[in-house]
Amino acid sequence: MFNQRLNQTDSICGAQSVWTHVHFNVILLCRGSVSAQAGLCASGISGGGNMAEPAGKRLKSSLPLCKTHRSSAGTSRARHNLPAAVEEALCGVSSLLLDGAYRLQALASVFERDDVALPRVASFFHQEALKQQDETEAMLGYLAERGGNYCGKDIQKPGCEAVCAVLPALELLLLQLKEEAGVLVELSQLARKHADPHTASVVKSHFLTPRVDRLKLLGDLLTSARRTGCTSDQTGRFGEYILNELQEELSR
Q: What positions does the domain Ferritin-like diiron occupy (predicted)?
């Protein structure tokens, strides 16, 4: 009987020893799992499998900043809550819009030539140039109201000297409006990032929203130009004539 109880005691002790060993291993595994999870979180990997975007892969800003900008901080009495980054971006975007107006004016002069003679197309680009000029003056006026400085720059060639047909001129205007819309979106986001909601609201309502209608109009005009047979060279003159005579949007 005594030997039987001794054997039972040894079995219980052995089982407890095995359970203690298993329990200790489980603790080590749990600690290792937590450490691994913490390491994944530190490296930007969450439990759901999402990975943080590497710093080198993030898109760079395309805002046309003024590298030689002279800030009005400390000299302007009207300046209030205007971050230096927003002031510099407003200065650069104003120059971009001014360049666009100059380019549109150059395109309008192309269709006034006697060897092209598309007066409605020329008037359309004149009106677009005037809209661009008005927007530039409005942005410069807003920059002055906020107490910022504008730094002018040298006027460059418009880069459209080779354009001599309606189709490439419309495509160039479409690309210009898309580029400006993207820049205005970045300007609005920059203003919000620097706690300047007023600038973000003004940019969105006065400069970005009107471009939506202009982009739709350009898309319609491009479709009509291709439908009437306009080409990127001087071989689609009859289609350009039909577009000039029948497209009502050109005289708006």
A: 80-229
